[in-house]
Each structure stands twice: as C-alpha cells, then as structure tokens.
Amino acid sequence: MSLSCGLLAAGLAPIVAVLAPSASPAHELLLDVLPAEALLLDLRYADGTAFSYEGYEIRPEGEEIPFQSGRTDANGRIAFAPGRAGSWRLTARSEDGHGLDVSFTTSAQGGDAVMTSRSWFDRYPRVFAGAGLILGIFGALQLFARRRRAAGLATLAVLAASSPCLAHHGVASLGVAGLQGPGAPVETSSSATLPAGKGLLTVKLDEAVFEKKTSERDDEGDVSSFWLYGFGWGVKPWLSAYVFVPYTAKRTEDNSFTTAGFTDLSVTAVLGFKLDEGLRLVPASESLDEQEDWHFTIYAGTTLPTGDENVRDADGAIDPGKALGFGTTAVSLGATVTKPAPEHLTWVGELSWIRFGEHEYDDGTRVRFGSELRANAALALRLATHAERGLRADAQLEGNFLRLGRDEVDGTGEAATGGDMVYLLPGARFYAGSTSAAFGVKIPIWTDLNEEADQQGGEGTEDVRILATFSALF
Amino acid sequence: MASPLRLPTLLLLGLLGLLAASPARGHDLRIEREGDSLVLRYGHGSPGSHHAGPTGTEPGFVREAICFDAGGNPTPVTPEAGSPLRLPGDCAATWALVSTGYWTKTPAGTRNLPATEVEHALSSRQSFESVKRLDAWTDALAQPLTSELEIVPLVDPRAVTPGKKLDVRVVRDGRPVAGLPVSCDGRVRGQTGQDGTIRLKVPEVELVLVQATVRDPHPGPEADEMVTTAGLVFETGGKE
Predict the structure, then answer these.
(1) Runs of H (alpha helix) within A229-325
(2) Who is most buried in A17, A69, A391, B129, counting CB within 10 A?
C-alpha cells in the first residue's frame, strides 16, 4: 500500500450554501460549505487498487485521541485539513489485515499545509534531480534569449545529426514490474534490447536553433529540424534490428536557401548482453533483480545513399552541407552500458563512432565529412509511478561529448569545420502503458571548434537544441 | 479563506507528493523454526504495516498440513484449534494450505463474509494461501510436492549466498505457470517466463519468502474470484 499526498483545493465562493435556514430548534444541525485547502492522502495497494471504504484514524503524534477518524472514500482517499503544523500518525486498516501505520509532518506557511516524506533517502535524490531539471530548463531559456555573436560559414556536418542515432526510446513494458525497470535517456542510447517478436515505432525531433553572428537577416543558418522515424524489431531477446528514415529541414535566416526532404535511411543491429555471474546474452524475460545487473550493447550500422546529395541553391551551386544525403555510406559502431540502481536511478553510458565515405558530387567536388566520436553519460531518475494507470515519470540529465573531425574537400582539410563540444541535456520522460514520450533541451556548455569564429550553423554553434521523442512498443 | 497557492509552493507540493510512496507487502505466511519444531506464522511482516486481520489460530484456518521426508514421502499433520500450527522440526520439507475464507468489499469496509451474506457487495474473493519450507535438498524435493500452486527452486535455495541469484519455477498441477507476478521479501520482482521460471536475487535476510499469486473466477455467487497465493520459505546462509 502506498501513501501519497496531493492538494485538495476546493471552490471559489466564500460561502456556497447554508442549508436548512428554516425555523431552527436549539439542537438543529447546521451546515456551511466552505472553500478550504487540505491534504489529500491517497491510500492504494501496490497494484494501484484504491484502499477504499476502510477505517482510519489520524492522531497528533503521541496522543491517544484522534484528530480525525472515519473511512476512506471510494477512491481510497482521505481529505485532511489540520490547519496547523504538527506531527501526525495515520493508522488505516481493513478487516482482512491490510493496513499501515505511518507518521508524517505538516507545516503551515500562510495557511498552506505541506506533507513531508519520512524518508531522507527517498527525499533528497529526487529533489536534487527535480531542481536540476528546473535549473537546466531555466538555463536553456536564458541561453535562448541571449543574443549572438558574429558571422558564420556553411552548415557542413549538420546532416550527420540525423544519421544512425539509436536512441533506445525506453518503453515501459507492461506488467507488474514494468514501471520499475531501468530508465531510458532522451539522447543517450540505453542498453535495452527489444523483446523477441516485438516491434517498436518511434519518432524523434531534434530542432537546432543556431546562434547568429550578425544582426542582419542574411544567409546564416537559422533553424534545422531533424526528424527521425524509426522501426525496430526484436529478432532475438538479445538481437534487435532497426531501420531509421530521417527527414531534415534546414532554413537560413533570410530563407535564401532552404532544403527539406527525406535523407539517407540507415539500418542498425544491436547485440545485447549482461553481467550476471559471468557474461551472458540478454534472456527472454528478466526480473527486476536481473534488470539491475550491468547491461551492455554493441551496435553497428550504416546509412544507405537514398537521399538527394546534389541539392543546388538559387545560383545552381551545390552545398554539401545543405544536402539531403551523403551520396555514400556512413558506417557507425557503438557500445552502451547501463546500470540501474536498486531503487530509482539508472546510469547509462554510450560511446559511438561514425565514419563517412568520400563522395564526388555532380560538380566534381569530392567531400568526406569528418568522423564523429560521441561519448554520452546519462542519469535517469524515476520520480513517480501510478501502477493502476500504468504511468511513470522520469527526470533525466545527460552530458554529451562530441568530437567532430575536420571535413575534407578534394582531399584537403576544410577550414572552419570540426572541433570538440560538450552539451548538457536536462529532460524528462513519461511512460503510459507501452508508449513513452521524452523531452529535453540540449545546450552547448563548452566548445573548442576549429576556427571557431568562422563557424556558424553547425554543431557546437547552437543556441539550443530541443529534443522530443515518442515511442510505442507493439 | 486561505490565500491562493504560490507557484513555488505548488512545485514543492508536487515534488514532495511524489516522494511519499512506501513499500507495500501482502500477507506473510511463513513456517519458522522455533526450538525443536516448526511453527506456521501468519500476518504482515513489513515495518509500518498494521495487521489486524486473521492471526492464523482461527478454527478452520489450516486446511491441510504435510511433513515430507527427504524422499518426498508425505505425513499429514493435524492442526490444533486455538494455537498456531506446529510441525515436526525434522521434516525435510513442510507444506501448509490455509484459507481465511471469503472477503467482500462493502461501503462499510471489507467483511469476512461471502458476497451473498452482505449488503452492497462491491467486490469479493475467496482466499487460499500455501507455504512450503525447505530444510533439505534432494532429487525428490526438487520436484513439485503437491498439485496446488507451488514454487519449486531449480537449485538448493539454502546454498545460494544472499546477493546471488536463484531460479525458481512456479507450477500448478505440475505444469509451469507463465506470466505470474512473483514477489521476494514482499516486493514484486517480475513475472514468470513461458517456462514458468523467474530469476531472483536472494535478499540479505535470514528467512526468505518468495510468493506468487494466481486469480481464478469463482465458480459460485459467493465471490467474484478465487485468489490463491503460494509461498516458498528457506533459510539463507549458504548451507550445504
């Protein structure tokens, strides 16, 4: 059985009704219906079933006479309006022996009653994570509002952002334990594999808003939207296969050269294994105890040149940075590690590398985009679950390191391309049954770009990236 | 009239409201060693829980009790009314089936009566619980000992060090039961796979209780369903 706290905020009018105003004998009972604030104590069994119609008492700590007694309502709830600070003891029981006996405190600040958890262990990690999330979003908004440095160059390598990024769009598995399993970050791939014979549909939006270096409306990269549509299939419990179809839209500030369309699709295979008294492949089903083991994946994938790499601007020139394809393959390799803590926390690490092939464009230019090395670390913190409705909410914090190699044009390193950068990504994920949605803001917090003053419209030069994903397991 | 809530207060309430979840446990039916004998204990074992229900000494509570020798041969044990069931301390395995009868939820609380004997029955169940304790490990004891819902460890559970994993299989009529929630030490740890097995971490406690529950429609009007819980009890410590 769980005990949770919420707010009951009743009505608006000061006095709504006064009943029985007729001629009143001395012992007549009068009723005033008043708006008030109260704590709502929600009593449920572990499976989410309401602890309804059962008896309870709330006593001031150490006292015998209850402040309040009665039965929970049809939803298993108790409205509690102590009107003062204090320590309380709630005793609830049913005839068949279920019940609880817990203490809690309320504080009164300006009339507001606040319920606090008894458990310091439970309390602080989540508060810190919540505060981190809020501060992160606040920081992102600040960065978003900030104005801008000087001029920029081409938007090379932006296309790479929509190449084989796996993103294990964690989906809460149905079942009694599904809501307590490991969390899945927004950007960093977790080590979860798909159940054998199950499919995953996913869509992800990565919207990059670039910092401008001039105040004029010119051809600087403004906003790029990277959509990623994915389909995954659990071939074996330990082997998953994915196909990703990216759609990219890139807009310059003056709309002088805007490209949009489907880009190179990619295929990826993921092999999952774990450490459980030795290395072993991921089994068909895992208990929560098994899910708490160290899990790993290695993956490999490639893009296929299905997009249009020879997109031309108004003058007929080809800008590979604005292209909708690489014209050749890009091979990716990666590995992940995931370690859920026993209660609420999941740590995820990922290392990946992408190498692009060289391609000769229709204008005779040969281009090889710089390779990408990514190192991601993420924490996912389970904040709340609602077993009856199959809901779960996680807060997440990620750090993403990216080393972009210098692009090569006709075999020569291209100026103002490549460099190192670190992003911070606070976010949240929400689960409902076999679906999940995640949101995050990705902020560059450190950059060391090649010829940094000349780079604009590429990775490391964003004001912010907004990420959103939705996934459904079927 | 109270002042409107401020945003920080709402945030604080929201955050703190998420924190107050406490662990929950079902009924604990255990067979514990007490001197030279074994005693059937019934109740809730978690701190903060408040047990005011059946104590296990009610007449008719124990439906069946069996002492098994190392060869798996059964010897029925007759319970004494008014006191907890006692079983011989030298049993290789012990098993007991109990029932607290019918339970019906009404607007006046949960009543220990069939749905046909109360007003405004909202939901109802007939409750059966069994527990098996292992104090030895032989080929015979590695098999199901009854035709009831039963948890069968695949290795000697007493030899598994706390913190290590134990595979168990949930069976009924000797056949594996798939998709059944299984708890260990009061916490649900997952569901059985297609072969009825689940892999559990043995907790750091002296007496481990593994439980699985199955729900079936009740054949008569007395209840909506029959709820049957099976338990496995063993002592930890890496015993030979």
Answers:
(1) 288-291
(2) B129
Cα–Cα dist B141/A138, whole Å: 62
Q: What is the pLDDT of residue A108?
A: 62
Supply A119's token pair: 């458990």
**Which residues in B lie closer than 8 A to residue A34 (C-beta atoms)?**
1
Model pLDDT, residue A106 = 84
- Can you give the pLDDT at residue A218? 79
Q: Judged by CB atoms within 8 Å, which residues 364-383 of A form the interface with B?
A: 383
CB of A112 within 8 A of CB of B14? no
How big is chain B by its Cα radius of gyration, in Å?
20
CB contact under 8 A, B109 and A71: yes
ipTM of the complex in this document:
0.78
Region A290-314 average pLDDT:
90
> Crossing angle for the helix pair B7-19 and A120-145, nearest 10 degrees?
140
As a whole number of angstroms, the distance between CA A51 and CA B22 comes to 14
A277 with B190: Cβ contact below 8 A: no
H-only helix segments in chain B: 7-19
**Partner-chain contact B112 A95, CB within 8 Å:** yes
CB contact under 8 A, B2 and A95: no
pLDDT under 50: residue ranges of chain B? 1-26, 45-50, 239-240
Confidence of residue A26 (pLDDT cuts 50, 70, 90): low
Q: Is B10 strand, coil or helix?
A: helix
